[in-house]
Amino acid sequence: MVGDESIVAQVEPPRVPGRLDTYRSRCGKWHRQVKVERCPGCGHPHLHRAPLPLVRSVIKNAPCGTTYVVQLRVPAVAA
Fold first, then answer.
1. Which among 12, 24, 48, 50 counts the fewest CB atoms within 10 Å?
2. Please, what is the Cα angle at 36 between 32 and 38, to 5 degrees?
3. Given this model, what pLDDT does residue 74 score?
4. Which of 50, 55, 49 is nearest to 74 (CA)?
5. In angstroms, rounded to a whole number, what is the distance separating the alpha carbons of residues 70 and 56?
């Protein structure tokens, strides 16, 4: 039928800065996680699994239901 199509606009998710943290578990293995200091939905910090391979930005879903793009800050390299 003509005119019955529903058009859904694609909204780009907000971009938030994130930091890559490395920690050691009790069993001695090293793990990486992405930390978001302030969620655009609820304002709380969130932790996410780090993507493999590492990329500069990744889409994540927060526990509060907000979807956002985490832009990872590349750590400075000491010369």
1. 12
2. 165
3. 65
4. 55
5. 8
- Report the predicted TM-score, pTM, of the whole model to 2 decimal places: 0.71
Q: What is the mean pLDDT of residues 28-39?
A: 92
54: closest CA among 30, 37, 40, 70? Answer: 70
Separation CA 23–CA 59 (nearest Å): 22
Residue 15: DSSP 8-state: E
Question: Residue 61: is its pLDDT beyond 90?
Answer: yes
CA torsion through residues 34, 38, 42, 44, sign: positive
Closest CA to 65 of 12, 11, 13: 13
pLDDT at residue 9, as a whole number: 63
Other CB atoms within 10 A of residue 66 CB: 16
